[in-house]
Specification:
The chain has 431 residues and is an alpha/beta fold. It is built from 14 helices and 9 strands.
């Protein structure tokens, strides 16, 4: 028995020493992450941009107002510079896979030498609940997710915080600031629309005035030509879709029409030079290849990997419609109205109404308050039609529009004077 006691004591001593060695081998950040109760898993990542980088998994309630409804795992990536540095929280609107790359660093984190906390949006990639109950995919819940992450890290990173995101991520940064005005010190939404309806109505007139009359005519001529040649192009289009395994909720001819209607929006959104548009006399194969390159039909597939985005757009984030008038003669569809619900939503949500509460709440917040915010837009980006460019005479809210810019507009793409102004504002606010 005495020997047994001695063995047990030796085992305890060994265990304590092992734990001590293990703990001392951990970095300060790893030890701090280990104390966050919501984190259930942490994995080290390679990085050529940060001294330490980890992917963690947070336990989040499906419904923050009713935690008893269940929970899911949300992927959060931590990229560390220093505990005394400001922290950028990236309010991603989609999945976080690309942020795992060793060379990835978001623009503001680079400009400000800041820590980066990258939050994958609920219902995307590894942050998708099982089962996928759509009722919990709301803007408010996504803001609550960010608030929970921010609270978990506020003692680790006590300095200034900046929220930022691109496109839908920019929308998320905007609604996060609206729901939690004091969570961050600065918000920088890039190319973030504030839409008022499932088919907002401002994008179509925007496309009728964007850039030059010559550029717009070249685009419309191309659209008309591929519609006129539908007889010869449609069989090739269908063959392409079959070979790619694309499945749709509408006849293939309608999908062809929608791809043509989407073409002008997609071309301007990504800043494709109009010089790349084939001449209307070009061979069939050249015309079809260009159409597929700019406006691929995979955007309209049933059970899309981005279905969660379409659900949010139809529910409360808003979206855009199409102007069919110039093409009426050649279209197989009578109207494009309601196409988002008919083509892209899960079957059980096809009758879901749009709720204007969110857009009204955000608009009211921006009009009645003046938080430190920088909005970046591209002049030719159709999403700018729904941008907050109407905000005027605010001391702290600044809106920058890149001349001729697209959905790729960033601080780094602004003209030199505006770029300098934006960076000086950020540095001033961080003092």
């Amino acid at each position: 028995m005495k020997n047994l006691r001695n063995c047990y004591a030796a085992f305890l001593l060994f265990a304590l020493l092992s734990a001590s060695v293990s703990l001392s081998a951990q970095t300060d950040l790893q030890q701090k992450l280990g104390k966050i109760s919501a984190i259930t898993e942490t994995q080290s990542l390679e990085s050529s941009r940060f001294s330490e980088k980890y992917v963690t998994y947070f336990t989040q309630p499906l419904d923050h107002r009713h935690p008893e409804k269940g929970s899911f795992r949300q992927r959060v990536i931590i990229s560390h510079v220093g505990f005394d540095r400001p922290t950028v929280i990236v309010t991603e609107g989609y999945g976080a896979a690309y942020a795992l790359h060793p060379k990835y660093r978001e623009e503001l984190s680079r400009l400000l030498d800041a820590n980066m906390i990258f939050v994958e949006h609920r219902y995307f990639l590894e942050s998708t609940p099982e089962p996928k109950d759509w009722q919990y995919l709301t803007a408010e819940n996504s803001a609550d997710d960010l608030h929970a992450v921010r609270n978990a890290f506020k003692s680790i990173y006590p300095g200034k915080w900046i929220a930022t995101g691109i496109s839908k991520g920019g929308q998320t940064a905007l609604l996060y600031r609206t729901f939690y005005p004091d969570d961050v010190d600065i918000s920088v939404p890039y190319v973030a629309p504030l839409c008022y309806a499932a088919e907002d109505g401002r994008h179509e007139p925007f496309l009728q005035k964007v850039s030059t009359a010559e550029a717009r005519k070249k685009i419309e001529d191309f659209q008309l030509e591929v519609l006129k040649r539908k007889g010869t192009l449609l069989p090739r289009f269908e063959k392409y879709c079959t070979e790619k395994g694309l499945k749709f909720r509408a006849p293939i001819e309608e999908i062809y029409d929608y791809s043509v209607l989407e073409y002008s929006f997609a071309l301007w959104q990504w800043g494709t030079p109009t010089s790349t548009i084939p001449a209307v006399t070009a061979p069939d194969d050249e015309l079809l290849a260009h159409l597929l390159d700019i406006s691929n039909p995979d955007y309209f597939i049933a059970d899309s990997p981005t279905a969660s985005f379409f659900v949010q757009a139809a529910r409360e984030l808003g979206y855009y419609g199409y102007d069919t008038k110039p093409f009426k003669k050649y279209l197989s569809i009578r109207s494009s109205k309601g196409y988002l619900h008919r083509l892209m939503l899960p079957e059980e949500l096809k009758d879901m109404p749009f709720d204007k509460t969110l857009s009204r709440k955000i608009t009211k917040f921006l009009k009645e308050n003046d938080p430190k915010m920088i909005f970046i837009y591209g002049e030719n980006d159709p999403w700018t039609a729904a941008g907050v460019t109407w905000l005027k005479e605010k001391k702290n809210i600044h809106v920058f529009v890149e001349p001729g810019g697209s959905h790729k507009a960033r601080i780094s793409t602004l003209p030199e004077a505006e770029k300098k102004e934006a960076i000086e504002l950020l540095n001033q606010w961080l003092k």
